[in-house]
Amino acid sequence: MTPTIELIKSHRSIRAFKDQPISQETINLLVEAGQAAATSSFIQACTVIQVNSIEKRQQLATMAGGQSYVEKASTFLVFCADMKRHELACEMNDAQMQSGFTEQFITATVDCGLFAQNVAIAAESLDLGIVYIGGIRNKISEVSDLLSLPELVYPVFGMCIGVPDQDPDVKPRLPLSIVLKQDSYDDSKDRELLADYDKHVKSYYHSRGSNTKEMGWTDQISGMLVKEARPHMLPFLQKRGFIKR
Amino acid sequence: MTPTIELIKSHRSIRAFKDQPISQETINLLVEAGQAAATSSFIQACTVIQVNSIEKRQQLATMAGGQSYVEKASTFLVFCADMKRHELACEMNDAQMQSGFTEQFITATVDCGLFAQNVAIAAESLDLGIVYIGGIRNKISEVSDLLSLPELVYPVFGMCIGVPDQDPDVKPRLPLSIVLKQDSYDDSKDRELLADYDKHVKSYYHSRGSNTKEMGWTDQISGMLVKEARPHMLPFLQKRGFIKR
After folding, report:
1. Is B26 on the interface with A (CB under 8 A)?
2. CB within 8 A of B243, min separation 6: which ones?
């Protein structure tokens, strides 16, 4: 165990922040930490929009489904998968870019994930709290317009960062034995393991300090998955030049 | 600056490893660190296959385009986006899962990115080195068969982990001002910034200890993007239940 691993294992999302600003110097440091992540074939496909405008923050909070901390957090960053810069690189070298491949969508999206997780850990190492905001994809077209994102750029998720004004528990994760498999995908014990895990999650929700509920993991997940999942995503992405082939 | 941020900023991929095993206890600790990452709506969509079999390692090294360190690294993990577990959760609750949404593909893929980056940083905090292996997507269908991955599971990337037997330089990243934008996507200065960055990258490649070359960033990227990017990905993913709508 190292202090860094202890830090990583203590993660929980923070949704209430103190009214305490973060300096631009610190934000720059966090984004530089993001840039230090591995990047597929050096594509560096993540661009971050730091949203300072109060009006834009309010609109983003609404678009994300009424998540007020998007407005209230000291810092709000939007992580964008960006192949516009690659188009420019091609132009600068008189090359014709072949775009629209699903593979490129994966590499750009994964780049954003690795980048953002570095930002998250760097922030937490400074005693800041963070929460990812996937909710911006509720209104991905409106969010893109609000931030003037061009074709070949899409907002993957946002992130609130600030000084925590709450201290929630760490949520119990799936048992290691279901998540880490040896040499091949064997799920013969998964049903049993999930049933046990359900009990564990129920007891966690039941006993935690606030927002107690009676719910396991499988019922929570199944309740979510019987519904459509943002069906506008594929047409939006294709319009913006992604996943066309 | 914190020790964790210093660690993050010192990342470079390691492709040569000492012949020194990593204990299962340590691997478990790394995967638990991965599990601690944020996960979209608590879906926990990442499953890790730890590949121990020498035969499978050799085959994976070949499938990844002849990357011998896939065979030689002490540990090789394959990070899979996994919605099979969600299907089981639905079954256990007599619910009918709606699958195939691009949105679900994004959340599961991003989950793997955040998870894996935690594993990477945790490993580096233990003085281990890592390299992501996107090359397994060269032969994604064969890799999936080799690891017996069912429908609704796809291998996003692999990761070699081991004790470093090399000490490469940190590669210079894009200028912060091109990657971090304020309030909206303004790329009016990007061409100029990329031209400067090209010089910087050229000088880095020219002066580094080994594998010197004459190349900037934009020419490297454009050389790559004039080619098709794994055109088999979309049909493969659709066959496995992803990106169908």
Report:
1. no
2. A102, A234, A243, B100, B102, B105, B234, B237
Report how far residue A225's alpha carbon sits from residue B182's, in angstroms, rounded to the nearest whole number. Answer: 36
CB-based contact (8 Å) between A110 and chain B? Answer: yes
A window 81-100, beta carbon within 8 A of B: 84-86, 88-90, 92-93, 95-99
Taking the Cβ of residue B141 and every Cβ of chain A, the question of whether any pair is shorter than 8 Å is answered with no
CA angle B14, B18, B20 (to 5 degrees): 125
**How many percent of chain B have pLDDT more than 90?**
96
B51 reaches A (C-beta below 8 A): yes
Asked if residues B83 and B47 have their Cβ atoms less than 8 Å apart, the reply is no
Give, as one character, the DSSP assignment of residue B155.
E
Query: What does the domain layout of chain A look like in residue ranges?
Result: 3-168, 176-222
Cα-based distances in Å from A134 to A1, A3, A55, A72, B111: 31, 29, 20, 17, 11
Find the mean pLDDT for residues A46-72: 98
The 10s digit of each residue's pLDDT in B153-174 is: 999 999 999 999 999 999 999 9
- For A107-129, write each residue's pLDDT tens digit: 999 999 999 999 999 999 999 99
pLDDT over 90 at A208, yes or no: no
Classify domain A3-168 at the CATH superfamily level: NADH Oxidase (3.40.109.10)
